[in-house]
Amino acid sequence: MTQTRTRTLALISGSTRAGSTNTAVLRSVPGILGDAIRPLPYLDLASLPHFNPDDDHEPLPAEVARLRALIADADALLFCTPEYAGDLPGSFKNLLDWTVGGSETTDKPSGWINVSTAPTLAAGAHAALRTVLGYTGARVVDAACVHLPVPRTAVDQATGLVTDAAVRDALAAVVRTLLAAD
């Protein structure tokens, strides 16, 4: 009998907002796929120092070292970020800037979930994310970069998890696609 290897998945939210739908989607992944993945959530965007190229060397700031170690330990990366003023939120761009100087994302299968229900569908943020991931050497898995609208009503306010069955099924499919690309 062949045993399936548990896959490690970095779950990186681009939101600092309490009650963020983007973060709720990522927090829901472990409950959807159970033992099929070992989640490595990174939800500490606000803890990262402002990027400064003068500080991008050993020893790295502690939070940057923690972020890079988390990415290095992952088999794949899944991002979920809102759009702010037509682009990536500044705090999330700061996180991505800290990954440019390292090699942790090189050839790492990467995808994202776009949960926007807005008319523009957060297209600017996800186009920018694709560009930055290209600079970091990440391998963007197009089939794992999806628009999956998640209305606030699909998130249980008490648990902060997605409860809508259709959204959960679609989320599971995206994660499986991403992990199959490794």
UniProtKB/TrEMBL annotation:
EC identifiers of the protein: 1.-.-.-
SUPFAM superfamilies in alphabetical order: Flavoproteins
Top-level enzyme category: oxidoreductase
Domain NADPH-dependent FMN reductase-like: 9-147
GO molecular function: oxidoreductase activity
A family per Pfam: FMN_red
The keyword Electron transport belongs to this UniProt entry's keyword annotation: no
Superkingdom to which the source organism belongs: Bacteria
Gene3D superfamilies, per the entry: 3.40.50.360
Keywords: Oxidoreductase
UniProt name for this protein: NADPH-dependent FMN reductase
Organism, as annotated: Actinacidiphila polyblastidii
